[in-house]
Amino acid sequence: MRELRYNPLTGQWIMVSAVRRERPWRPSGFCPFCPGGEETGYGWEVLLLPNRFPMLSFEAPKPEPIEFYRKARALGQCSVIVESPEHDLKDLDELSQGGMVKVVKLWREATAELRGNPHVAYLAIFRNKGEEIGVSLTHPHDQLYALPFIPLRVRLKLENSRNHYERHGECLFCRILNEELEGRRLVYENRGFALFMPFFASWPFEVHIYPKRHVMWLTQLDEREIEDLADAMRVATGVLNEVLGREMPYSMMVFQAPLRGNYPFYHLHVEFYPLLRDNGRIKYTAGIEMGTWEFTYDGVPEENAERLRRACRRVTKRLGAVGGCPRRP
Ligand code: ZN
Ligand code: ZN
Fold this sequence. Notes:
Strand order of the largest sheet: 3-5-7-6-11-12-10-9-8
CATH superfamily: HIT-like
Number of helices: 6
Bound molecules: zinc ion
C-alpha cells in the first residue's frame, strides 16, 4: 500500500507507505552504502542510488477513490546520495572539498533531470545527521525526494516572497541577505555565498546559506559558485560540530523553487536545523512546536551567532576554507 492522503484542514499531503516497515534499523556488520555491495560496486567517490524503501514511486498504483477524503497516487522518486566510499566519515566537514563539489553537482544533475518530468512538482534535497534525529544508516549520505506536490512550507515561502516582490519590487531573500551580511549574525562568507543565523532563528544554532547572486535553482549556479557552495556547506557543518565541542545532530534542507513554472521572486537557499541547545541538551519539539508549529527561542540569537563565529575561526583553517569569518563588535 502506497498513496498520498490529503489533510483538508491544513492543506498538506501525507505520504503513506507500508514498504518502509521492512526498513533495516542499523543492521550490524552490513552496510548497503559501502563499496563492493550489490548496488554500489567499486570505483566511485559519490554515488546516487535509488532508495530501496521509497515512499514515492513512478509506478505507484492509482488509489481507489473514496467519497469525502482525497487520495492521490504516490508518484515520485526517492533516492540516496552516498557522499563518500568511507563508512566512518562523520559529517560533510570531513569530506574533501573535491568530494563535496561532486555531491553538489549530483544535486544539480538530479534537478536538471527531474525538471522535465511532468509528475514532479518539487525536489526536496535533505540530510539527517546523528542518532538523536533517527539516522538509521551512519554511512554519510543525503536524500532526494522528487515530490508530486509543493510542500506547505515552500508554498508559504513562495506566497510571502511573492507578496514582498509585488509590494517592494525586490526579492525578499536578497533583502534578508543584505541585512545579514551587514549584521551581527553573519558567521562566514566566501565569494559566492553567505552563512548566517537568521534574525528569526527557531533553533538555538540554526544557520542558513544564501547564494549572493539571485538564482532560483541549483542548475543556475556556475562552476565557481558550485565550488563556493561546497565550501560553505563544509564550513557550516564544521562550525556546528565545533561550537559545542561535540558532534551536532541536525537536519539540513536545500530549498529551490518548484521545478515547473517561473518564480523570479524566489531565491535558492539552504537551512540547517541543529538539535542541540547551548547547554548541549536536545531541544525537543514538543507541545508548542508540534501543536502550533510556533517556536520558542531560549537565549539571545546574536550571542549564539557570536559563538558560531568563534567556532568558525577555529575550523576554517582546518578545512582550508576560501572565505572568512567576520569580526563583529
Ligand atoms: Zn558503509
Ligand atoms: Zn534574491
